RNA sequence: GACCCUAUCGUCCAGUGGCCUAGGACACUCCCCUUUCACGGGAGUAACACGGGUUCGAAUCCCGUUAGGGUCGCCA
């Protein structure tokens, strides 16, 4: 029972969830699920200045959006709570008293410092291997502060106390903590408790290798939510940063990742973040979404557009048309706009190429006349009518396609023309073709 | 500055002494398919940081250099 795997993600509520933090959470989540262990979410809000309900909410929302459910933590509870450090005052006091009684602490300018054991500390890391840190030199390794003069607690101390109290078996965290680990090990030793296993995962940097800061593209999970990425795709992309199934596959069901995931196989090299590949993966997931889920995930992006609140019968056929075309939901409003307004704009280049040609107007009118005679308004019939008209006019069918497309949509590209016209409807399609023939075409 | 980690195409991964004239994916270029764009299919450009070892043999092991990243807070 003591060998049970318990891992934790312990973010500080800074107001945003960094992509690197999200991946740390993900690797914890994957390891917990792989081992059938427990994934704990603990909020490290000892810094009262930065602590706010909203800031915590951003983290919870981000984790939920990525489909990482926690077994213990905020709104879940659990037998090792509370899960906010701001509510664990008495626990820290107890451990503090123990350290003080053991002679490990001394006062310095009103703050409490931990007297280092001044030894060589070995970190046996599951990813980085065995590393020795020589802490014997006071100059290069000053005693760490664990409590401020105002009584508030410092990260290193509360982090260790909570890992003890919450029975954490494996600490999976960013490599930026690797150099802090010997200090933490000293604390475990002074407290007389066994330390957890450590696994430091490499960091995520910008594509050019520079440090990723808050403002950089893709740094905040909120940017993926707002950017309309398919959440499964972002989760999938994150698993591929530092880990791989080894067989070259890129798109993997998360259940399979859970099955295959292993800390020992995680890379030791920092990953450079490539938003293009993430967008590509989102597009891959997009096409495999059911129309229902696609419509559901689209709806927040339709707010404020002509398509907002439209009944499913009107909206879904249009969404079906663009589903295979977009890579993010954010692209949807622009992709469908001309279906829901007569005030659609014409792309200059497409207009120039398709409409500003001699005889374009006459050809469009001939097409409109042919479409008026189509018995059933199906893609097949529309196509047949267009091809027959091409024969009549003595031109290639292809040369009528683009002008028709631009006339009914204003654009040079889009869904299959015949399917698009079917959804647009006979009356609307013909009206747009005639209007364009009158006003735009030469 | 000290200490720690890392080093394969522009990027993400494969490769753990011979199967590597280094493989896959994104991006890029070209071709095919197609009514357009996209999808799909095919082809191409492109990498073992450098220098020493060890070995019959090194992308793979060792050392050094260089480069990048991290830590050294009364931030987390």
List keywords for this structure.
single chain; 442 residues; mainly alpha; Rossmann fold; Arc Repressor Mutant, subunit A; 3-stranded antiparallel sheet; two-stranded parallel sheet; 18 helices; 11 strands; 10% strand; elongated; RNA-binding
Q: What does this 3D model show about the protein?
A:
- The radius of gyration is 30 Å and the shape is elongated.
- It has 18 helices and 11 strands.
- The protein is mainly alpha-helical.
- Among the domains are: 114 residues, 3-Layer(aba) Sandwich (Rossmann fold), CATH 3.40.50.620; 52 residues; 94 residues, Arc Repressor Mutant, subunit A.
- A 3-stranded antiparallel beta sheet has the order 3-4-7.
- It binds one RNA strand of 76 nucleotides through strand 4, strand 6, strand 7, helix 4 and strand 11.
Distance from first to last alpha carbon:
82 Å
Largest sheet: 3 strands, antiparallel
| The CATH fourth-level homologous superfamily of one domain | HUPs
Query: What integer is the average pLDDT?
Result: 92
- The total count of helices amounts to 18
Class of one domain, according to the CATH hierarchy? Answer: Alpha Beta
CATH topology of one domain: Rossmann fold
Tally the beta strands: 11
Give the overall silhouette. Answer: elongated
What would you call the quaternary organization? single chain
Structural class call reads mainly alpha
CA-atom Rg in angstroms = 30 Å
Helical amount among residues, as a percent range?
40-55%
Widest β-sheet, arrangement of strands: 3-4-7
Give the DSSP E fraction (strand runs of 2 or more residues). Answer: 5-15%
Low-confidence spans: none
What is the CATH-assigned architecture of one domain? 3-Layer(aba) Sandwich
> Helices and strands, in N-to-C order?
EHEHHEEEEEHEHEEHHHEHHHHHHHHHH
